[in-house]
Amino acid sequence: MAPSEKNSAATITDYDLHLFNEGSFFRAYEKMGAHVCLRDGQAGVVFRVWAPDAQSAAVIGDFNGWNWDAHPMRSLGGSGVWEAFIPGLGQGALYKFGFRSRGTGQALEKVDPYATHFEMRPKTACVVWPVDDYAWADGAWMAERARRNAHDAPMSIYEVHLGSWRRTEDSRWLTYRDLADALPTYCREMGFTHVEFLPITEHPFDGSWGYQTIGYFAPTSRFGTPQDFMVLVDKLHQAGVGVILDWVPAHFPRDAHGLGEFDGTHLYEHADPRQGVHQDWDTYIFNYGRDELRSYLISSALYWLDKFHLDGLRVDAVASMLYLDYSREGGDWVPNKYGGRENLEAIEFIKRFNATVYSEFPGTVTFAEESTAWPMVSRPTYLGGLGFGMKWNMGWMHDILKYFSMDPIYRKYSPQLADLRDALHLSREFRAAVFARRSRSHEGLDAAQDAGRRVAEVREPASAVWVHVRLSGQKAAVHGQRVRPG
Questions:
Q1: Measured between alpha carbons, how far is 435 from 32 in angstroms, rounded to an integer?
Q2: 3-class DSSP assignment, residue 243
Q3: In 11, 112, 182, 404, which residue has its Cα 20 to 30 A from 462's Cα atom?
Q4: How far is CA 271 from CA 117, 189, 210, 237, 285, in A?
Q5: What span, in angstroms and rounded, lies between the C-alpha atoms of 314 and 184?
Q6: 464-472 own/partner pairs: CB under 8 Å, 24+ apart
Q7: What digits encode the pLDDT tens for the residues 206-220?
């Protein structure tokens, strides 16, 4: 698509910057990052990045030999935003931002937080890549989506990790387009109404399964381009299958080229490690009290619903967001202003996120992966709830897995684990989960050596969950385990 003078990304207004700084610019992806456009009749790329403590900033890339002096950025005043327009540049250019810290003088090379495409890891550069040139063919699905996602509609969700669901004969990943040829048919044959993708947001470490995101606006390049991912979503929609994405606003990795200490200060994370470092995963925790961060994260959520036609977001690790003492010893955390353990800033962020999603994209749905007894998780914000559409029923999943991991001869002594009379579903909208995605959660099921028994051990809990769903009215989520004899 040729750049146009009408491309709104070419300019950013004072009002845009005001909204960004006050934490209510929820389409920031339309202005921030890298955008191919026309300015004063010249085709090129405009770059914008938020780095308020940088003394200087530059765009560096393969087009200027990664020379910090070639394309300096100009400061847009007190907003903390920097901008540069580089004529003659276009899609496919590799780039990063270079900052000189005001406080320490340190030179930093960082990725674009709003990048839409990245090099294949282990390389780390961003790629200039427009995402507005895809011709969607899912109009029928989009017109019916609100009805398909309604609370009283049947919902059977198949959770899939794209890197391991299926591979080629030489053990290579399937591409987004390969998956578009196989996954919709499989879901239809198996009776699933939706798929839920483990995070496909760009991430540097394969072993994180996508849960340590570095590119909140970029489908991972492991499987193709953003347009290739659009083809996958489009084909699923055309097959009558909705698409939900695992989205991780709880924490992010500490890779040097990422968001951590972005401009030489703790910009995206808390400076105090008692608030800013997740001890379980050795990752940074977002500082939800920073207004610009609210603009950033909620913009990311809307971006996936807007540009990629996604039908819902499952928010990961909500419990770790809600509690200041989550997975911490006494004294190793900072109480809130009332002396409590509740993360008041994260609570307000979650409420704002949910209210904005349901306002801007009616017919979509949000899910909470929340494992505690926090009240009113799936009640509207105007009633005092967190505002999620549904909550993942973690407790029932863990109990049923524990029950079926026992040798059958001992199961009669623990009937309470498989009790289908779950009182919680009477007070919340739940989505029942059949199998945990990580092997340690279903190692008992995999332990059976006999192939026939192994299949039976999977079939039993699968049958149990459908009975549970039938009796409770909950939605069902089946994790993508492809099990067969032999």
A1: 39
A2: strand
A3: 182
A4: 29, 50, 25, 43, 10
A5: 20
A6: 464/400, 464/404, 464/418, 464/420, 465/400, 465/432, 465/434, 467/420, 468/396, 468/400, 468/420, 468/422, 468/432, 469/432, 471/420, 472/420, 472/422, 472/425, 472/430, 472/432
A7: 888 888 999 999 999
Q: Which residues are catalytic?
A: 316, 369
Q: Which amino acid is at 182?
A: A
Which one-letter DSSP state was computed for residue 326? T
Q: With the C-alpha atoms ordered 8, 366, 114, 242, is the resulting torsion angle positive or negative?
A: negative
Domains and CATH numbers, the chain: 9-127 (2.60.40.10), 139-388 (3.20.20.80)
Q: Rounded distance, CA 357 to CA 360, Å?
A: 5
Q: Is 293 helix (H, G, I), strand (E, B) or coil?
A: helix
Cα–Cα dist 419/477, whole Å: 18
Number of residues in the chain: 486
CB atoms within 10 A of CB 475: 25
Cα–Cα separations (whole angstroms), residue 263 to 53, 82, 300: 6, 12, 20
Give 345-392 pLDDT, tens digit per residue: 999 999 999 999 999 999 999 999 988 889 999 999 999 999 999 988
